[in-house]
Design brief:
By secondary structure, the protein is an alpha/beta fold. It has helices spanning about 25-35, 50-65, 80-85, 115-125, 130-140, 145-160, 165-175, 180-185, 200-215, 220-230, 235-245, 250-260, 270-280, 285-300; strands at about 20, 40-45, 70-75, 95-100, 100-110. It has 3 domains: about 20-110, Glutaredoxin (3-Layer(aba) Sandwich), CATH 3.40.30; about 125-215, Serine Threonine Protein Phosphatase 5, Tetratricopeptide repeat, CATH 1.25.40; about 215-300, Alpha Horseshoe (Serine Threonine Protein Phosphatase 5, Tetratricopeptide repeat), CATH 1.25.40. The chain contains 14 helices and 5 strands.
């Protein structure tokens, strides 16, 4: 007889392991009962499934990063077909989220890490805490999953309308999509006495930089103009803005550093100030920021 999916607490206490394999016999203990204590993800997989091989390591990574807020239980459907059959699993990978003894959410197919992080954040809710939610959303945004990031930031703001990190994060999402008006509206929600906080100021810099980049012009045309008139410092400056707008941070960095080396006082130190703004928008851990700060310091204090 098939083991039922739902049941009462067993005699054995749920395992404290974060990632484990299960069987038909142990499913109630490992998943149903364990989900009374914390949410449990169930990963239905098979050795022949290539998408499963992509998904499972990502699941394990994100679950371990939750520091015990959620557990992962893996079930090989070839060895143990009864439970997936009861749950109507027809294709794999299939992932179900269990909470309070029952499945509450799920997805099928191999998703990117950012979407898995967002799924887990929704599943655990307040269990992981606001700081972890912000970190998850930041990771999603960094990975390019703007929708997932915006959803998590929005959820945080529902509970904490004045959370500066979430406000800044949601505004960054709007900047990424080009919706500057909504970015400005989001930043305006920051309390007046905290409107100049580092996270809010960084997004304002990103907005300002986006406007400057729009005004800079076409990269190829500016590159040709700068090459024809190497003494035209404004052309060099505009080229740097256009390069950054096109994702060429190293090119923008090289161009502005060359301008600083040529005439650091030009236009009231415009090149140095623009570099500082680049660093603020790129973030302190970006390789271009680290390299740029070192090279700028060498120029200024040589």
């Amino acid at each position: 007889m098939d083991t039922p999916i739902l049941g009462t607490q067993g005699e054995d206490a749920p395992s404290a392991e974060t990632v484990k394999n299960t069987t038909t016999q142990d499913f109630v203990r490992d998943v149903v009962d364990a989900s009374q204590t914390r949410p449990v993800l169930v990963d239905f997989w098979a050795p022949w499934c290539e998408p499963c091989k992509q998904l499972t390591p990502i699941l394990e990574k994100v679950v371990r990063a939750s520091k015990g807020a959620v557990a992962l239980v893996k079930m090989n459907i070839d060895d143990y077909p009864e439970i997936p059959g009861q749950m109507g699993v027809q294709s794999i990978p299939a992932v179900f989220g269990f909470k309070d003894g029952r499945p509450v959410d799920g997805f099928m197919g191999a998703l990117p890490e950012s979407q898995i992080s967002a799924f887990i954040a929704r599943l655990v809710g307040e269990t992981v805490g606001t700081a972890a939610d912000v970190e998850t959303a930041d990771a999603a945004l960094e990975a390019g999953d703007v929708n997932a990031a915006a959803q998590i930031f929005g959820q945080i703001l529902q509970d904490e309308p004045e959370n500066l990190d979430a406000l800044a994060g949601l505004a960054k999402c709007y900047v990424k999509t080009g919706d500057r008006e909504r970015a400005e509206q989001t930043l305006a929600l920051a309390p007046p006495d905290k409107a100049d906080s580092p996270s809010i100021a960084a997004v304002r810099s990103a907005l300002d930089l986006a406007r400057k980049s729009d005004e800079a012009g076409d990269v190829d045309a500016l590159r040709a103009k700068a090459a024809q008139a190497p003494e035209d410092l404004q052309a060099q400056f505009d080229l740097a803005l256009a390069l950054n707008a096109n994702g060429d941070r190293e090119g923008a960095l090289d161009t502005l550093l060359a301008l600083v080396a040529k005439n650091r006082n030009w236009n009231e130190e415009a090149a140095r100030k623009q570099l500082v703004q680049f660093f603020e928008v790129w973030g302190p851990t970006d390789p271009a920021t680290t390299s740029g700060r070192q090279r700028l310091s060498s120029l200024l204090f040589a």
